[in-house]
Amino acid sequence: MSRKSSPMFALTTLAILLLAGAPAWAGQATKTFNATASVAAKCVMSNIANLDFGSYDPVVTNASAALPGNTSFTLTCTKNASPSISLSVGNGNFGGNLAAKRAMNNGTASAGNYLSYDLFLPTGVGAPASVSATASLWGDGTSGTTTFAPSVPSVAAQTITIFGDVVGGQDVPVGAYTDSVTATVNF
Fold it and tell me: From CA 85, how far away is CA 183, in angstroms rounded?
């Protein structure tokens, strides 16, 4: 045996001796466990813009025709969540001009200072170019309104469009008209 192979022989011998001295297992026991987690429904609304109808012309353009407008927001929910989106109707302006209509006010809380409008459910989810307004009034389930319940096939963000019309033929004074609407998603 050469001098170079002597250390290798010594290491091999030591390994064999160590293995021979290792305890022999008398048996074996196993136990299975489960990994668990839960996923709760969650929805988030974002990027909601004001609904700006623009200029209402009660003399010519809107003497008999409504003034349409729309806005949209982004809805992101857990897959298969069941969201229900409502738009508030319970403010002091509701029915201020025309019965059963939303109304914008010009800052003077007296008769004749309200501009009536409606908000409508969309035919589905998507930007205004891909969906249209239905005849159903969008609200909170009161005053002849209903809520919107889109399906959620994935966690991907969806565009929800709110359509509206300022009712044509209203005899209102000059001014800037506003109303506040709260969008709420229950899930």
Answer: 7
132 is a domain residue: yes
**Amino acid residing at 178:** T
117 in a structural domain: yes
Answer yes or no: is 56 within a domain. Answer: no
Total of domains in the chain: 1
Judge whether 54 lies within some domain: no
* Token pair for 83: 């969201």
The candidate with the shortest Cα–Cα distance to 117, out of 71, 59, 186, is 71
| Dihedral sign of CA atoms 118, 123, 124, 127 in order | negative
Per-residue pLDDT of the chain (187 residues; tens, 9 = 90+): 555 556 666 666 655 655 555 567 899 999 999 999 999 999 999 999 999 999 999 999 999 999 999 999 999 999 999 999 999 997 788 888 998 899 999 999 888 899 999 999 999 999 999 999 999 999 999 989 999 999 999 999 999 999 999 999 999 999 999 999 999 999 9
**Residue 72's CATH number:** 2.60.40
- In the chain, the amino acid numbered 99 is A
What's the domain range around 76?
A: 65-187
Q: What are phi and psi of 20, to 5 degrees?
A: -65, -30
Q: Which two tokens stand for residue 60?
A: 């010519």
Q: Quote the CA–CA distance of 102 and 104 in Å, as a whole number.
A: 7
